[in-house]
Amino acid sequence: MTKFWSSMAKRAEPYVPGLQLNEPDMIKLNTNENPYAPSPKVWEAIQTEAAPNLRLYPSPTGDEFRSTIASRYGLSADEVFIGNGSDEVLAFSFMAFFEPGKPIRYPSITYSFYPVYATLFDIPFEEVPVHKDFSVPVEAFYHSAGGVILPNPNAPTSLYLELEQIEAIVEKNPHQVVIIDEAYIDFATESATTLIHKYDNLLVIQTTSKSRSLAGLRVGYALGSKSLINALIRMKDSFNSYTIDRLALAGAQAAFEDEAYFIEVTEKIIATRENAIAKMNALNFHVLPSKANFIFVSHPDFKADFLYTALRKVGILTRHFKQDLIHNYLRITVGTEEDMDQLIEKLQHIMKLDDLM
Q: Given Cys at both, which of 103, 250, 289, 346 links 45, Cβ 3.0 to 4.6 Å?
């Protein structure tokens, strides 16, 4: 019954996360998690922090961690905001920068949390149709009445917009905030963070969940002008001053400090991604040119829902979306080399079993 629900609760249409099956023999390639453990220094930092300090509240401002992030991107700590995962940072951003009555724009094929937040906060939206090849029509994002939010690389398509295209969108929306959601940028090339000192309407959101293997700690962050960061802090402190716990702060700090490990892991995933793409192409899959830690694939002779079900039966979990335009695609997280070899082997077997179709 919804008798006592508020209007916000009634209009909410919750996000549906990827299936979380933690069966020991399952190869989990459906939620874009990093297949490698975080830096060993993360566990050391968490252990050091846990014993003496769990009785104390964490820092409400996270100044040390903000300074560490800032130094990596050539920013000041005042240009960094941290939150409990990038999804929370996105929620605060919707509240801080988008207005009811002024429609925002995002691609028609994109991260499915955007319409969830827009609906929840009563913000109208315009879904900009992507091209037939799923690329984003850059000019369609110019002169938005309410603002723009755009993932780069995009999810679930894995496609990447070049920096000059991102800059054009920011430049053509001088009176609105443009949010570039860079959850997967460490597997691509240039980040829009290099544009922050040039444009005061640009907010870049990143996460430690993917390239730093910290999905379980839930630490995300935003980078932008001091004015934008102050607006996010106002939202956070009006909601919960202590959004990041002590262990998460300690672990994320250690992950950022171990730059060598971060580079080693991201380079390994990129190499595995390219090998997997070549092998999928050899099986006649259509694979979009990925710049993320996942690939987006379809096959001319086998429906995606069939492949999804068949792979799950043999212990490999992928992601299938029933949305128009992409219902015949699978999103496959890049696992270890061994994971991807298992995927290829199982696909070769499945695609010979015509009687299962």
A: 250
Q: 14, exposed or middle or buried, with CB in 10 Å at 0-12, 13-18, 19+?
A: exposed
> Strand 294-298 to strand 286-287: parallel, antiparallel, or no bridges (unpaired)?
antiparallel
Q: What is the pLDDT of residue 18?
A: 67
Could you give the CA distance from residue 153 to residue 325 in angstroms, rounded to a whole number? 18
Q: Which amino acid is at 32?
A: N
Angle made by CA atoms 229, 230, 236, in degrees to the nearest 5: 90
With 50 as the cut, is the pLDDT of residue 99 above it?
A: yes
d(CA 116, CA 113): 5
For the chain, domains (ranges, CATH) are 7-37+260-352 (3.90.1150.10), 40-258 (3.40.640.10)
Structural tokens at position 72: 């990596």
Q: Is the pLDDT of residue 305 over 50?
A: yes
Report the SS3 class of residue 223.
strand
Strand order in the sheet with 330-333: 286-287, 294-298, 330-333, 319-320
List pLDDT tens digits, range 109-126: 999 999 999 999 999 999
Which one is predicted more confidently, 193 or 242? Answer: 193
Among 150, 167, 170, 168, which Cα is nearest to 159's? 150
Q: Which tokens go with 52?
A: 């003496």
What spatial distance separates the first Cα and last Cα of the chain, rounded to whole Å? 41
- 132: tokens are 């037939």
pLDDT at residue 200 above 50? yes
Contacts of 256 (CB under 8 A, 6+ apart): 65, 68, 69, 72, 208, 212, 262
